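Lecture notes, unit on protein representations.

Consider one protein chain, 478 amino acids long.
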Amino acid sequence: MSEKFDVIVIGAGPGGYVAAIRAAQLGLKTACVEKWVDGKGAPVLGGTCLNVGCIPSKALLETTHKMHEAQHGFAAQGIVAENVHIDPKQMVARKDQIVKNLTGGIAGLFKANGVTLLQGKGRLLANKQVEVTDKDGNVSLHAAENVVLAAGSVPVEIPPAPLTEGLILDNAGALDIDEVPARLGIIGAGVIGLEMGSIWARCGSQVTVLEAMDTFLSVTDQDVSKEAYKLMTKQGLDIKLGARCTGTEVNGNEVTVKYTDANGEQSLVVDKLIVAVGRRPLTQNLVSDDSGVKLDERGFIFVDEQCRTDAPGIYAIGDIVRGPMLAHKASEEGIMVVDIIAGHKAQLNYDCVPNIIYTFPELAWVGKTEQELKNEGVAIKVGKFPFAASGRAMAANATEGFVKMIADEKTDRILGVHIVGGIASELIAQAVIAMEFCATAEDLQMTVFAHPTVSEAVHEAALAVDNHAIHIANRKKR
């Protein structure tokens, strides 16, 4: 048995590495287990988010957005830019360099904070023992007073579309496409599907998205989903709803996708096919049967509101537990459980976790939708302000979308904010802060927002809740 730790974290993704750093900062003797290695056998930190998810996809989205703006938006602003085009290989190389810089940064943070990195696959055994199997098959045992499970998730694979190198890809493979496919197929109109579709549609691909559900982005507010569908379609994405993939056939460098929709059996021929139908928790062989940790039928670990499992001293965070699979949710859960381990009071407000889709315009929301609140019988009042009425948005050539604010009709407390807009991912933080402090619409009405800024749209939406918006005509009072 090796030395004993106060905390062992299994997984070095955005939940695990943050938990490990926080634990070390609080004076706890900490180790972090990570199995991912690169081609040279060196540990790879940061998990899916940093390596094949959030960060690399945003790098590609940013590059293609800049190119699209140059091609279609510069002329109206008096900027002459001829023959602007994408270099896919350089775009991917830049993405890879950003990932390399950040993963190296985590290794430096581990060293600076005194976190011990245990390279290998971690497995929780009984009595808070952690078994680590390295890349060569060597096994070591480590004991801890507390263990944090943060193994993350992997893409869901579907039998009708088995992954085929270079042709049928998951989210990781999609990020390494270095030539613009003439025809791109995507199975799944969720976050990953829409972001990947946006990237390549901007580059000139003919993008077809097959979504099995009859509704588009059903988790979002209906105003957001309607606006997003309109804008995505306008940008060239052919989104087919109620389209269920039934099979695929690889013919040379093409893939024939068979699917069914309201009109019966259909087929689609593409050069690349991305499978983006969701993710599943990576909990297989993560815990032994006698560890005391219980899983549900889908592989998620049962935890309470503070991420405690059924086994004393064992916590689980991030994608392997209930709630949205979001990097920032995992990070904050990691901080919460380590603070609890250190004896501090901590609680995560799950009602104030923001969601974002990084298309352009971006989609961002926090709190409940208008439909959810109405179904719950909550009396509400709604304010909405379009970016088309924002001077700064006009100057930025980004007038699509709106800010929608929902408040309780009786208490005026803000219950949800939903944004479609160029920098929705940044604006939503204002709503998160307001809701975290239990702000009312009136609180934001009385707050001074700088002019001219895009943020004024949040101010105007708050004013519109009570029909007091200044820069749009308010709806008539009943």
